[in-house]
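Incident review: delayed structure delivery

Summary: a single-chain prediction request sat in the queue longer than the usual turnaround. Root cause was a stuck worker, restarted by the on-call engineer. No data loss occurred. The affected request and its eventual output are reproduced below so the record is complete for anyone auditing the incident later.

Affected input:
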Amino acid sequence: MEGIIFKALSGFYYVDDGSGTITACRGRGKLRHEKITPLVGDRVEFTPLDNGQGALDAILPRKNQFARPAVANIDQLVIIASQSIPVTDPFLIDRVIAIAEGNHCESIVCVNKCDLASGAELAALYRRAGYQALEVSAETGEGIDQLKELISGKVSAFTGNSGVGKSSILNALEPGIALKTGEVSDKLGRGRHTTRHVELVRLSCGGVVADTPGFSSFDVDKMELCRKEELAGRFREFTPYVDRCQFQDCAHVKEKGCAVLAAVKAGEIAKSRHESYVRLYEQAKQIPDWERK
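Output delivered after worker restart:
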């Protein structure tokens, strides 16, 4: 039989076969021998056993996979941000988008808490950069129907810095999903983590979503970074300009005759996006080629 791993916990892999049946499986010895670690989101072949559990036989080819959190075959990342407490640093958004671009994964920027503070400017910035972006309120329901349309028929991973309302939005998308939500700490200005592991959830709108423990887990470590020469390709609004630079090996940081810098100066590329690019470029420079995947 075939199915998708919806949850991995305590050595068991919970496989949804699409019929509404979830089977708790353990990996066969050959997977361990081949050093294959099943991930949430994996499409798998499994064999039901007489005791009601199952055995994982094989992992089918992956569309993509992420290191932290460990999840595979994601169609799009829904990046939850906020202009209210806690205010999201745009660099965190840009960092996750860069990871998504490198994994052939779309990004949706979802600015929550628009009932408390307008997210229109932030959403417009990312729409200009070529991404889907919208304002929502988990509290009032504003924008939730539009978000349902965007995730219908897709496997979407939800991420965002702690306290922006990831679990609250999932509850708004699917009342009764019963994901625990936490209040924002006044002292720290960030939320208490309420999600301890990645888990896929099938929604009545036709989508499948994953909640993740926050941006700290979607970190850009050395295994997620690309070569510095490839980073500009992860900023899609740079594409019309990169071939117009005076020098073919232009890094788009501070070089003479750089068309990307000219576009930033002209307001055609957001300054904050270019600042994020420079920070990621400097990080990429520190990683030797042999350490990259």
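Verification: The two ends are 32 Å apart (CA to CA).
Action items: add queue-age alerting; document worker restart procedure.
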